Amino acid sequence: MVEHCPFKAGVLGSSPSRLNPPARFPGKRGDVPARLLDGAAIATAIKNELEAGLVSLKSQGVVPGLAAVLVGDNPASQIYVRSKVKTCEALGIYSERIELPATTSTSELKRLVDELNARDTIDGILVQLPLPPQIDAKTILLSIDPSKDVDGLHPMNAGKLLSGRPGLVPCTPAGILEILDRSAIAIRGARAVVVGRSDMVGKPVAILLLHRHATVTVCHSQTRDLPAVTREADILVAAMGRAAMLTRPFIKPGATVIDVGTNRLSRPEEVKLAFHDPTAALEKLASKGSVLIGDVQPEDVREVAGAFTPVPGGVGPLTIAMLMSNTVRAARLRRGMQ
Ligand code: NDP
Fold it and tell me: pTM for the full model?
């Protein structure tokens, strides 16, 4: 099974061939190797900083609490929720993992959210997406108390983000800004292109970059001549969920490329299409049953970019670190602490 299949109609059709990049896009930076932006190391640094804050909170009798709600048995969601709860345990954040059957209705889930809203020991409520189709996700996200909305998806927090007021910011976009800042990538005045316009990733990261004085373009599935737009980017954020779609012709030499995509390939023919040299990936597929790849072609980005986030080990670890950060922040804000 392929999550976020890159080979759906319209995806390969809209991108230049990854196997035979056109000669007019040489895209070589010369001898300088692209800098790998180590998301795992940055996430560890953030978690270490949080630990110090947690000790101080504990001395004041405050233990932040996170409730992670999982509906149904989506294997990827189970892994995400498990690793979020595990990170809470490692940091000393109180956590509850609440699992509901796939048949849960909107009103049943809303009742649970109402209970969690009312509980003082819970500072953050995370409802893992995607939800089963019978559940109205917008109703659920709207029912979460904005002060406990650690995913930053409530319209109240989205509005605060848009208007530059302090609030809870979605974790992945916040993590992307941490990667850029902690890697000393200049944002002010840079041309930034975000590919993807979801509420969770594309839109909020575009707003954050705009607030930091980048000149931002947001692209999506209807964008004409996508490579011409992305090649303008000093900072390119790929968040489409299309395996290895952004190849050499999409990347400006020397650009910083942030790859948000997490696509799991499970068939050899998909792996052969996604990698120029698929040998190592095919071995991984044989031993593990699947291969994780981002939205950016990994061999091209190493050759063309100035700096890039790998998949795995780039944006993913930051998403969890920022969830922890948001939970601690929510705990402080709810108690009127700075
Ligand atoms: P969505 O499916 O919600 O949004 C995808 C966006 O990409 C849409 O705006 C869509 O355009 C656009 N898009 C799709 N195909 C193309 C194309 N061919 N050309 C240009 N744009 C295209 O995805 P999410 O934002 O939730 O996630 C994006 C990726 O990031 C996924 O792989 C997801 O797994 C990953 N992710 C990773 C996280 C991490 O921690 N590493 C966290 C969150 C997400 P349109 O609006 O026109 O349909």
Answer: 0.92
